[in-house]
Design brief:
5-stranded antiparallel beta sheet, 8 helices, 31% helix, alpha/beta, 253 residues
Length: 253
């Protein structure tokens, strides 16, 4: 059974989250809840917990200041927040779990399932990166966080050649031929990277157009990427891809 701590300055939000968690039976137990982050800091080290549901905006200390004040982040963190487009974008780029208020039972169940996965705990450097991005909403995202065995690897978006679907996982192939696997779908990466020059040319392939060496219409459509990677273009995606790539100076066939 997972042990959970809730930190939210609004009592009604705590009660709603407790209600949803209690509906899950013996999967999770709320061991403590706090409205005051300073009080939580004084007591949380003595409370058994696997996950903290952490509200972002609170008086006295916000979520990032609270985490920075912890001697060590020993549990998984799930941020809870009202809608803030840029904050949510930052969480996505840094592969951090969040729940959007009002919290739904389905979203909560998915978040708790991910707690059971072998995803590393957050590090202080990660907290600083996310906080700095949220404080500077006009800054450009140039990296994404990839959960690896002993932490997170920050990957430059420009170094990603293509991404490949594998059921509920995705493989990320880098320009140095390194291959990383993330427990996210290709759709997740597509939403994250499409504004950075990536195009989903096939149900299972997402390519960085900056690495395209050649596109041939033979056999329905085939892309050759730097590194001699050959990627098929699906019939359904061919027309849209050709229109998209034409803006980069035309096609070789």
């Amino acid at each position: 059974m997972l042990k959970a701590v809730i930190l939210d300055d609004e009592l009604n939000c705590i009660e709603v989250l407790k209600y949803e968690l209690n509906k899950m039976g013996d999967k999770v137990q709320v061991t403590a809840s706090f409205q005051d982050p300073v009080e939580a800091l004084k007591n949380i080290e003595d409370i058994e917990h696997d996950v903290i549901f952490l509200d972002i905006e609170m008086p006295r200390l916000n979520a990032f200041q609270f985490l920075d004040a912890l001697p060590d982040i020993k549990s998984k963190i799930i941020f809870t927040t009202a809608y803030d487009h840029y904050a949510l974008k930052a969480f996505r780029y840094y592969a951090v779990d969040y729940l959007l208020k009002p919290i739904s039972g389905d979203d909560l169940a998915e978040a708790l399932d991910r707690v059971h996965q072998t995803v590393p705990k957050m590090e202080k450097t990660m907290i600083d990166e996310i906080y700095n991005k949220i404080k500077s909403p006009n800054s450009v995202f140039t990296k994404i966080a990839i959960p690896v065995e002993h932490g997170y690897q920050m990957v430059k978006i420009e170094d990603i050649v293509y991404c490949e679907a594998d059921s509920n996982y995705a493989h990320i192939i880098l320009s140095n031929s390194k291959r990383l696997t993330i427990s996210k779908t290709l759709k997740y990466l597509d939403n994250l990277l499409r504004s950075h020059g990536f195009y989903r040319v096939h149900q299972s392939k997402l390519v960085n157009v900056n690495y395209i060496e050649n596109y041939s219409r033979v056999d329905g459509g085939v892309i050759t990427l730097v590194g001699n990677y050959t990627i098929p273009v699906s019939r359904a995606n061919r027309k849209g891809f050709e229109l998209y790539i034409s803006s980069f100076g035309g096609l070789s066939s």
